[in-house]
Amino acid sequence: MSTVTTPPARHASEPPAPAPAADPRRGMRRRGRIIAVAFVLPALLLLGALVVYPVLFSVGRSFFDASGDRFVGGDNYTGMFRDPATLKAIRNSAIWVVVAPALLTGLGLILAVLVEKIRWATAFKLLMFMPMAVSFLAAGIIFRLAYDEDPDKGVLNAAVVGVHDTFSATSSYPTARARDGQGLTKEKDGAYATADAASPGSVVHLGLVGVRPQDLPAEARPAYPQASRTAGGDELTGVAYLDFTPGGGGTQGQVDPDESGLPKLRVEAVRDGETVASTTTAADGSFRLTGLDPGTYTLRLPAENFAPRFDGVSWLGPTLVTPAIIGAYLWIWTGFAMVLIGAGLSTMPRDVLEAARMDGASEWQVFRRITVPLLAPVLTVVFVTLVINVMKVFDLVYVIAPGPVQEDATVLATQMWLVSFGGGSDQGLGSALGVLLLLLVIPAMVFNVHRFRRSQS
Question: Which segment, 94-108, 122-136, 162-176, 374-388, is predicted with the most confidence on average?
Fold first, then answer.
């Protein structure tokens, strides 16, 4: 038989039992959550106002027409893939994604490895990183000037023209031409030949125009003293001169006292279609062709005398405009890639590298089989970050590419702006392009977030 035990009755004069004390840690946690929400709430409000709302609004706007009044469904999405300009923007964006991040990651890796071996590594890193302090707008203006086709303005073409002129002779008279009816006829290849044949012992005057007196070579001398020179029995002599008297006056087709000779002109004696003698004019424009057999000859000024000067490369033409803009992007971001990869390189275990060298591995083998695999996580982060960045590039393309080739250089970001605000005034199609750009960026962003989470776990 079981018994029930009852607690003793409390006496009336005894005080009541105290209530259990509240856990102070719970209150601290509650206050911590309130403080955290108070700090995070402004950021969440800004994120919602500046990111979430514009994204949702753009998605909704992409289903309406240009005016925003009529619902068109997916017409904007199908229409943008039928637009040649949009297809070109997608192609250019693909070129950017494939080329720029790969080049930047490779350059950053090479520079980070090489910088470790120089004494002034910190100064070099600072110089390479300085372009990151320049805005894309300012960098675009800098490279727009650097890529100018005029060698007197564009530094790149000035260098190219300088190298070209060092190894290849240039014409001194690209604008020169003969007067009509003054004894010289123009041939199909751009050369000039005398209309009348000349025999040894003759003196021939070759007058040209189209050369400004200030553009004459510095060594040019007056042609008049040589105009009356006589020739021997087996030679043809003459003078090539600028048939123009400064200040006016003079007689066309004749060498006047104030007219200048044309030095460094190549003159040929042609007989039966073959060049039998050639020479170059002196400072006063005089020339002498010797050792000629009896007969008649045609004097010819080859086309090389009048070839246009080499003015450089059309960096901002339809063919090279995208590579040129990518070059400007590399100038800005190479320092970023180098510094980030260099930070990863500084954390690598040096004993592994030294052990490989002691085992007889060459520097190339150490780099390829040890350095690169150990840096793979850092290289991946740099590459994916740059992929996200190049897909949004806008400033450089818009500033560097001239108006006539803007369509050849356009990417998705610039095409979105041009369609919406740059004259197209179709914000429905522009919103669809924005949504397409967002969908292309999201996978890279998600991949990057997963990489960060795995590296922290």
Answer: 94-108
What would the pLDDT profile of 210-233 be if each residue is shown by its tens digit? Answer: 888 777 888 888 888 877 677 677
Residue with tokens 């009509």: 180
d(C-alpha 135, C-alpha 323), whole Å? 20
**Tokens at 51, concatenated:** 């990111």
* Residue 60 near residue 68, CB atoms below 8 Å: no
Would you say how long the chain is, in residues?
457
The confidence band for 334, taking pLDDT boundaries of 50, 70 and 90, is: very high
Q: Where, residue-wise, is CATH 1.10.3720.10 in the chain? A: 75-158+315-456
Q: Which two tokens stand for residue 355?
A: 């052990």
Cβ–Cβ < 8 Å for 177, 354: no
C-alpha–C-alpha distance, residues 303 and 301, integer Å: 7
Q: What is the Cα–Cα distance from 274 to 147, expressed in whole angstroms?
A: 44
Which residues 6+ apart lie within 8 Å of 430 measured at CB?
416, 417, 419, 420, 421, 424
Per-residue CA distances from 376 to 93, 334, 344, 452, 453 (Å): 25, 18, 10, 14, 16
Question: Residue 21's pLDDT band (boundaries 50, 70, 90)?
Answer: low
Strand order in the sheet with 286-289: 203-208, 236-242, 286-289
| Element housing 268 (H / E) | strand 266-271
Q: What is the mean pLDDT of residues 181-204?
A: 86
Cα–Cα distance between 83 and 416 in angstroms, integer? Answer: 13
CATH architecture of 75-158+315-456: Orthogonal Bundle (1.10)
For 109-140, b/e burial (b = at least 16 CB within 10 A) is: bebbbebeeeeeeeebbeebeebeeeebeebb
Contacts of 73 by beta carbon, 8 Å cutoff, 6+ apart: 63
| Mean local confidence (pLDDT), 422-427 | 77
pLDDT tens digit sequence for 353-401: 888 888 888 888 888 888 888 888 889 889 988 998 998 899 899 999 9
The Cα 322–Cα 330 span in angstroms is: 12
Measured on CA atoms in the order 246, 248, 249, 250, is the torsion positive or negative? positive
